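Minimal example, chain plus zinc ion.
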Amino acid sequence: MDTPEHPTFTHRARDLENQRFGKWTVLHRYYPQVKSKATYWTCRCDCGTVKPVMAPALVKGGSTSCGCARRTNKLPQSKVRSQENPLYRTWMTMKTRCYNSSHPSYKAYGARGIKVAPEWHDYARFAADMGERPTGHSIERIDNNGDYGPGNCHWATRVEQCSNRRNSRVVLLEGRSMPLSVAAREQGVDYLSLYMLVVKRGIEAHEAVRRLREKGSRFRERAAELK
Ligand SMILES: [Zn+2]
């Protein structure tokens, strides 16, 4: 690699040919079409990708692969801050609804005083609290007038969301009034089943819970059919 055939060749450039840097194997010098002070080397990644890499990035360890290494020992999907991550998209959309007054859905959220709890302005905290978004689910506030925040949100399917909107019903259970979905969770019964008994059939909450505990599985099957 000592042939000064190229005008930008400089003898000060360290010869890195055939050396290994992480997954990179250095093939030969690379001369950018546009003159550059930086020294480039064409490298082959272990995965087969060939591309020029700046010498300092190789030597100082700034680049150790074409990016495939990062993709393989990648963060859990839920930690990736990208629009391709459903959880991240949910977080962005949630903030938009609450704080971007020029967004159409702001009317139903921010304008009504719905906020994102301070803890959830931190994406990492939001991700830890909610976990990955199951396919076909979206974030739902349990108390429809409450904020987005820990304790007031869960992942719901469309069926569950519609049910919740239709009833936005508060039931009295064990002397306390609470949203139907909170009652279902506290009592450990299926939400949609409870909804059908209380809202559709007018059965009192405590009686509905008792029946669901007795015949839980049958109602869960029915709920599954509806989804
Ligand atoms: Zn690679």
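The longest strand covers residues 24-30. The two ends are 66 Å apart (CA to CA).
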